[in-house]
Write a structure and sequence with these properties.
Layout: E1 2-7, H1 12-24, E2 28-31, H2 42-55, E3 60-65, H3 69-75, E4 83-85, H4 89-99, E5 103-107, H5 113-125, H6 132-147
Parallel strand pairs: 1-2, 1-3, 3-5, 4-5
Helix pairs in contact: 1-5, 2-3, 4-5
Length: 148
């Protein structure tokens, strides 16, 4: 898979670890910045990842900010982007398996390096279950998205 990765200044300290973890898992990365701890606005980087996923340039995305919350809120404003903040491995794989999560949001000020690696690996290994109840629920979400 191709994985778009971006962060704001708060997420920058964790970005290189995430890029390395994605590569080590056998996937290609698209690094969309930022490249320093100089203050930037997280919605711009959430949008970059969202656009990469929407256009098909990336299969999934990972956004890192200080808490993960702002990036998650911003990404979920984009059509077809199903972002989830995950600070545990269960949520990271279950979000993909049940909810077709295609963007993982992480809080670099919340979790440490080792748990971040495990979360990313769980996210990358997961596949949508495709069961009737999950498809039915996702169709309801897509209907909400289309109506609003």
């Amino acid at each position: 898979m191709k994985i778009a990765v971006a962060c704001d200044h708060g997420g920058f300290p964790l970005k290189e670890t995430i890029l390395e973890t994605v590569h080590a898992a056998g996937h290609e990365t698209i690094d969309l910045g930022t490249d320093s701890q100089v203050s930037v606005d997280f919605p711009e980087y959430a949008e970059k990842v969202g656009r990469a996923v929407q256009s098909g340039k990336a299969d999934r995305g990972i956004i890192i900010c200080g808490s993960g919350i702002g990036a998650c809120v911003a990404a979920n404003k984009m059509k077809g982007i199903y972002a989830g903040i995950c600070h545990d491995t269960y949520s990271a794989h279950q979000g993909v398996e049940h909810d077709e999560m295609n963007v993982l949001c992480l809080g670099a000020r919340i979790i440490g390096i080792e748990i971040a690696k495990e979360i990313v690996r769980a996210f990358l290994k997961a596949e949508f279950d495709g069961g009737e109840r999950f498809v039915r629920r996702m169709n309801k979400i897509r209907k909400l998205e289309a109506e609003n």
